[in-house]
Specification:
Layout: H1 2-14, E1 22-23, E2 25-28, H2 34-46, E3 50-51, E4 58-59, H3 61-69, E5 75-81, H4 90-94, E6 102-113, E7 115-120, H5 121-127, H6 138-141, E8 152-155, H7 162-173, E9 180-183, H8 187-199, E10 205-209, H9 214-217, E11 224-227, E12 240-241, E13 252-253, E14 259-266, H10 267-272, H11 274-282, H12 287-299, H13 306-319, H14 321-332
Helix pairs in contact: 2-13, 11-14
Amino acid sequence: MAVLGAAALVLSACGTIEDDDTIAIARATWDSGHMQAAIYAQLLTELGYSVTDPAEHTLDPNGFYPALGNGQYDLWANGWFPIHDIYLEAERVTGQSVELPIEPVGYQVRSGALQGYMIDKATADSMGITSMHQLADPSVAEVFDHDGDGLADLIGCNEGWGCNSVIESHIADLDWGGNVEQVVGDYGDLVAGVQASIAAGEPALFYAWTPNWTFEALRPGVDAVWLESSAIEDDEGLTLVEGLDGCAADPCNLGWAVSSIRAVAHEDLLADHPDIRRLLEVVTIPLADIAVQNALMAGAERDYSEEQIVADAAKWIADNRATVDGWLETARG
C-alpha cells in the first residue's frame, strides 16, 4: 500500500482534480469494456475537463480499487455489480476497517449483463448435459479433463478478476466443485483455445459473460449451451434469466446474479464536481451497441488498435448526439 500512496502523491504533483481539473480515469483489463471507457473519457472532455487516456491506465479490479481508494485515480466505467461488491469492502481492499471513499454511480447497463458456465453443444446433446450439477458425477467430469489429473478443466478468467474469485468459491462450495479445477490465464487467449477445441470436435467447459466478443465466435444454442447451476445465495431470484438462448430451462438459473455495469468514482471527485456526478448518473449504453463493437474486435481476430477503439467511441457519441447533448445539459445543471 505504501507504493500506491507514493504513486498518488506523484499524480497529485503532476496535476489531478485538486489543481487543474484533470480527471484520472482508468479502464479494466477486459477489452469488452474498452470502448465504454473511451466514451466516458470523451464525454468528460465535452463537459470541459482534461482527462487522462484510459488506455494508459489498464488495471484489473485488484489493482484499481485500492488505487481509487488512495486517490491515485478518480474513476473508471467498468464496475460490475454485485460481483465487485467485494471491492467495496475496505478490509479486503486495504487491510483496514476504514470505509473506502469510493462510490458506484449510475447504471451504464442495468441488470442486463449475464455470467455463467457453458459447454460445447455437441457434448451437451450427446450426453444430455444441461446442468453443472451433473459434473458431480466423476464420469461426466472426466469428459472435460484435458490434462489427465482426474478433474474437469473449467476455462476460467484472469487472476485478479472478480469472476476468478467467484469461480473458486463455487468450486469450494457447490456439489460439482470436487471434480472441477479452474484454468486461469488471459481470458481472450483461453477462449480462443475453446474455439479451437470446439472446431476440432473436442469437449469444452468454460466461464462466459455478456457483453463480450466471444458470443459472436461461440453462439449460444449453436456452438455452445448454458448450464444451470444453483447459486450459493440467491433469495431474490437474481440468477434466473427468462428466454435465454442456449439454455435447456426457462427460466434458466445461471448460478450468477445478472449484473449491472456501473461507473465507480472517488467521493472527492463527486463532491467537488457535482456536474460529473450528474453526468455519471445519466449515462447509459445499450448492450446491443456494446455487442456490435465487440463483434468488430472479434472480426479483427483481437488485433484491434487503440485508435479504432477511440474512433468507435466517437462514432457512438455522434450516432447518439441528441441523447448525449441531453446528458451534458443535465450535467451542467
